[in-house]
Amino acid sequence: MASSRKPASRTDPSDRLTDKVAQALQAGAAFVVSGGAASDPAEIVVAVALSGGRDSVALLHAAQAAVSAWNLQARVVALHVHHGLQAQADDWDRFCTELCERWQLGYFVRRVSVQAGTGEGIEAAARRARYEALGEMCRVSGACMLLFAHHLDDQVETVLLRLFRGAGVAGMAGMPAMRRLDEEGAIVLLRPWLEVPRADIDSYCAAHGLAWIEDPSNDSTRYARNALRAQLPLLEQAFPALRANVAQAAVHFAQAASMLDDLAGAALSRLAAPGRDADTLAELDLPGLRALPASHADAVLRVWLRDLGARAPSTARLAAMRGQLLDHGGGEPAIDHDGLVLRRFQGRVLACRPEPDTLPAPQALAWHGEARIVVPAWRGELRFTRDDTFGVPEAVLRQPLRLAQRTGGERIVLRPGGPARALKQAYQEAGVPRWRRCWLPLLWAGDVLVMAAGLGMHRRWGEAPHAPRWRVEWVQAGPGARSD
């Protein structure tokens, strides 16, 4: 980002807020480049999360002023999320549209449907939907930085609310001033006004004659944050330094959380490994995890889930995970968490993709000598390689083929001259977990079993090098797929 020089003459008190935005943008640009996302471009796109309320309108104005006053090679755009949760949502969209037209700024809007997931309320669901929509709009607009107007009063309320809800050390750290929004590090989230009290933003709006819209839900004490906000004046009468002290406590908690993350990360590096198949994202060494103290194991699980892109589990949820995955020895538990399924299998804790709700219907196929047949319904493909010694006779493969799930009672020969064994036993001996088997199809030529995915070909034909033969393999789709 060009020009790091502060403007020479800055006498307006509201300039302090503009300067904080400019400094945050310069720090954010360095943060993006350090993440390897991109080199420093000639002009960057800076996005402001615009709700239409006082704080976000002030921030959008200050972002423009910072780019101009500090001679930054940047272009400002506004991003608006239309939740549809209140009757005035369309009015807010119109207000933001007209504001950006007057200020000649790019404007992006996304409508989202808010649906609470397992273990979260409507406020948490709205927050999750908002961040997903903002990330999408950043990518569409080309923005590498996303600014939020959270201020000191917001930070104090956040820390106190988390305290009342029993948050851990990481939660008590409050909102960070800077963090990566996406796993790739291409977008950095900035909160340049976390140290600025609400009163200073009021003064900024008055100095620049800004107009905004009021959210009527801000006056409803049925929401926890509003109920707390109504009590803060009384608390400040008894504790005049409350805001400054709570903010300082958040800094201490952030430092402690960073140290705990470093310790957990060191243990995680010893215990973690990539998944061994296309449906397993990652795995943890179960004996090593069990050897840790419970609190240390919890920290490792939290960091592992965070690195996989899942939201942090609550203390109770984490205890339940540990109880089923680590403490209990029997069975094959399956724990759903934020788009992942956590399982235990053969001395490992696995983070798996969720299985589809229904299995596909049998697929009729015809082979005409091609090297591969992709079967999307079964999430994989058949591959054919010439093998005149131990392959399947070509005449068999020229018959109508069928890919279908097991029905029970099937038997297979896995080595030439070997015994026929029940598929269930063969899968057990091969270490294929039970939940995977229903998604490993069988290939039939008429009534003849040709191949069992996860095991290999049926070797019923023996050695006969005098006829055209083909080796048939099943390859799972997705990263980490391997041939059977």
From TrEMBL:
Keywords: ATP-binding, Cytoplasm, Ligase, Nucleotide-binding, tRNA processing. Pfam families: ATP_bind_3, TilS, TilS_C. Coiled coil: none annotated. It catalyses: cytidine(34) in tRNA(Ile2) + L-lysine + ATP = lysidine(34) in tRNA(Ile2) + AMP + diphosphate + H(+). Its EC number is 6.3.4.19. It is an enzyme of class 6 (ligase). GO terms for molecular function: tRNA(Ile)-lysidine synthase activity. CDD domains: TilS_N (cd01992). Gene3D superfamilies: 1.20.59.20, HUPs (3.40.50.620). It is found in: Cytoplasm. Its main location: cytoplasm. Residues 401-474 form the Lysidine-tRNA(Ile) synthetase C-terminal domain. ATP binds at S51, G52, G53, R54, D55, S56. InterPro entries: Lysidine-tRNA-synth_C, Rossmann-like_a/b/a_fold, TilS/TtcA_N, tRNA_Ile_lys_synt, tRNA_Ile_lys_synt_N, tRNA_Ile_lys_synt_subst-bd. It comes from the Bacteria. Belongs to the tRNA(Ile)-lysidine synthase family. Ligates lysine onto the cytidine present at position 34 of the AUA codon-specific tRNA(Ile) that contains the anticodon CAU, in an ATP-dependent manner. Cytidine is converted to lysidine, thus changing the amino acid specificity of the tRNA from methionine to isoleucine. The N-terminal region contains the highly conserved SGGXDS motif, predicted to be a P-loop motif involved in ATP binding. This is tRNA(Ile)-lysidine synthase. It comes from Cupriavidus laharis. The gene is tilS.
